[in-house]
Amino acid sequence: MTSLPVAARHLPVTVSFTRRADPAHTREMTAWIRAGLTMAESFPGFLGAGWVRSHDGSDEWHMLCRFADQEALEAWEASTERAWWLRSAEGLAEVTRTERRTGIEGWFDSPVSTEVVTPAAPPAPPRWKQATTIWLVFYPLNLLATVTLGAALADVPVALRVLVVTLTLTPLMTYLLLPWITRRLSWWLHGRPWRERRAR
Length: 200
Known about the structure:
Strand content: 15-25%
CATH architecture of the largest domain: 2-Layer Sandwich
Shape: elongated
Number of strands: 4
Radius of gyration: 19 Å
Helix content: 40-55%
Structural class: alpha+beta
Largest sheet: 4 strands, antiparallel
Distance between the termini: 30 Å
CATH topology of the largest domain: Alpha-Beta Plaits
Order of helices and strands: EHEEHHEHHH
Low-confidence stretches: 110-121
Mean pLDDT: 78
Number of helices: 6
């Protein structure tokens, strides 16, 4: 297992991995992935997950899991539940790439090879798409905070008022809204046609 630098162990961490499976077993892979993500949801520190395929009929499945910190991720990786889940895919799928990343961009970047030498992964979405995606949730959230928290704290000194608002908005953005919007806009972020969009 690749460990993160000490300074990054307390930051949210996203693990991205790619599995290759025969397209004839799409239903089995879909059920297997959903079972694993459902189990991960019950673990402390789990922040969200998602999966996509490059295109219809592709044999590659790209998955993301995000945890509050390295310790939470390691607890999931060492669990008996995850071990059972991995064993259940023997003969069905093989790992081709795995990578851990910290920070918001871990949600946007495509998996990059760290275990097996394979063809280059698709590039991360353009910066303007990343910025647009963040703005789509930041604007309404900031507007809501302005008319609620901002109004309630109108008589509080501006430095303290900004502190309270940012402390409220940052975890909402990082843990809830950004994972939610990136899952739903994954088809657009990675340049796939609308007809290939998968409902979440």
